[in-house]
Design goal:
Largest sheet: 8 strands, mixed
CATH class of the largest domain: Alpha Beta
Low-confidence stretches: none
CATH architecture of the largest domain: Alpha-Beta Barrel
CATH superfamily of the largest domain: Metal-dependent hydrolases
Shape: globular
Distance between the termini: 27 Å
Oligomer: single chain
CATH topology of the largest domain: TIM Barrel
Length: 421
């Protein structure tokens, strides 16, 4: 299939010759064959024109959850990857949040096979411990060989400090990436939201910022002792940013991410007891969001994530205390982030991170595979339930204003067009 993108403004700060230039891009059989100021379409060529069309290398998300296997009613792999593609993401890292959880090489092979033939590439994480129970290391080396890009007991802190130490030492033999979720369960107790004025006012049990920061500090001390590669997913407090900045100054091989909803919202939205705002880590305070944004801009925080977590209606529309954690976020990642930051910063954040997982970054260059996201940074719209592509509808962004929109994406010789307003 031949595709011709007409008058596309290229956003790619790594390619100075094309960055911020408007060009036609001709794609044949999934390969970029020509980039020029004007290209005349040949016969049997699909011409793609959009208002204020922008193009970048395909976007990458380091934290998405679906449901298959075990929770297909939340999201299948097929529909999850379709949702990602329509949201502009050509590559996603899949959390090990299924039942059974992927703790062996055969589980990783199953996930890879289930995702074959889709526009969006799926890169699975395996669990760090068997059954994610925190007791014994899983088959890390075998899972790495089968295609796992890291090891993570999803949203479960590694309470056994010695096991984390052993894991960081062991994976150095094959350059494995170890995750450690930043939560001290003893400090958090039965907390479900950020501990502070809002939790006190609402009578909800709080999770102190200290619960995250103690775990981050502990993990960084262990990393300094062992070496290895550590990733701390979805940090949420100002002090966590400082701790990681100090660790990087020491030369420690640590990366971290932040969920977009922790940049947009604070715990003040909990006043209506709406369980769509119940997430882990919890929404924090305005000073935290300001420091998180600053950490993104100065590079302390390595990348953003949608932290896409589908949950069906029975798990969310119940008493706040009993509701499950999580919000979907793929569909709103670009529109909400574009409200906060300049478009060049937004695109940089949405395209970075692959290298941490040993993945090759795509390029907008003649002769390269076409892995592209098509979008416009202009215009505004209100995000409504009919805009949700996910099977689950648990979005905390419903009713929020989005800036810009995604036109679609191109990858693996597939072009998928989003429904834009």
């Amino acid at each position: 299939m031949n595709i011709l993108l007409k008058s596309a403004k290229i956003i790619d700060k790594h390619n100075e010759s094309l960055h911020l230039k408007t060009r036609d891009i001709l794609i044949k059989d999934g390969i970029i064959v020509k980039i020029a100021a004007k290209i005349e379409p040949e016969s049997k060529t699909q011409v793609v024109k959009h208002k204020n069309l922008h193009v970048s290398v395909g976007w990458f998300d380091s934290s998405v959850s679906f449901g298959e296997p075990g929770y297909e009613e939340r999201e299948t792999i097929e529909n999850g990857l379709r949702t990602a593609a329509l949201s502009g993401f050509t590559d996603v890292v899949l959390n090990p949040s299924t039942h059974p959880c992927p703790d062996s090489s055969s589980d990783i092979v199953y996930l890879k096979n289930a995702a074959a033939g889709q526009l969006t590439n799926l890169y699975p994480l395996g669990t760090l411990t068997m059954k994610a129970d925190g007791n014994d290391l899983a088959e890390l080396y075998d899972m790495k060989n089968a295609g796992a890009v890291g090891f993570y007991d999803y949203k479960l802190p590694m309470t056994n400090a010695n096991l984390l130490k052993v894991a960081l030492q062991y994976v150095q033999n094959f350059s494995g990436l170890v995750y450690s979720f930043p939560l001290d369960t003893k400090i958090a107790g039965k907390g479900i939201v950020n501990e502070g004025a809002v939790s006190t006012q609402l009578g909800l049990k709080g999770i102190p910022a200290l619960a995250e920061e103690l775990q981050v500090a502990r993990d960084l001390f262990i990393l300094e002792y062992t070496g290895g590669k550590l990733h701390i997913p979805t940090i949420s407090t100002a002090t966590s940013v400082k701790l990681i900045a100090d660790a990087k100054k020491k030369g420690l091989d640590v990366s971290c991410s932040v969920a977009i909803h922790n940049l947009v919202y604070t715990d003040s939205v909990l006043e209506e007891f709406d369980s769509t705002y119940k997430v882990l880590p919890p929404l924090r305070t305005k000073p935290d969001t300001k420091t998180l944004l600053k950490g993104l801009k100065d590079g302390t925080i390595d990348f953003v994530t949608s932290d896409h977590t589908p949950m069906n209606i029975e798990e969310k529309r119940i008493e706040f205390d009993n509701a499950s954690y999580g919000t979907i976020g793929l569909e709103t990642a670009f529109g909400s982030l574009n409200q906060l930051l300049d478009i060049e910063v937004v695109v940089n954040l949405l395209t970075k991170g692959r290298e941490r997982y040993g993945l090759k970054s795509p390029e907008i260059k003649e002769g390269e595979i076409a892995c592209l996201t098509l979008f416009t940074p202009e215009g505004s719209s209100t995000f409504n339930e009919e805009d949700i592509e996910s099977t689950s509808k648990n979005s905390m962004f419903l009713g929020s204003e989005m800036k810009g929109s995604v036109y679609g994406s191109i990858n693996n010789s597939i072009h998928l067009t989003a429904n834009t307003k």
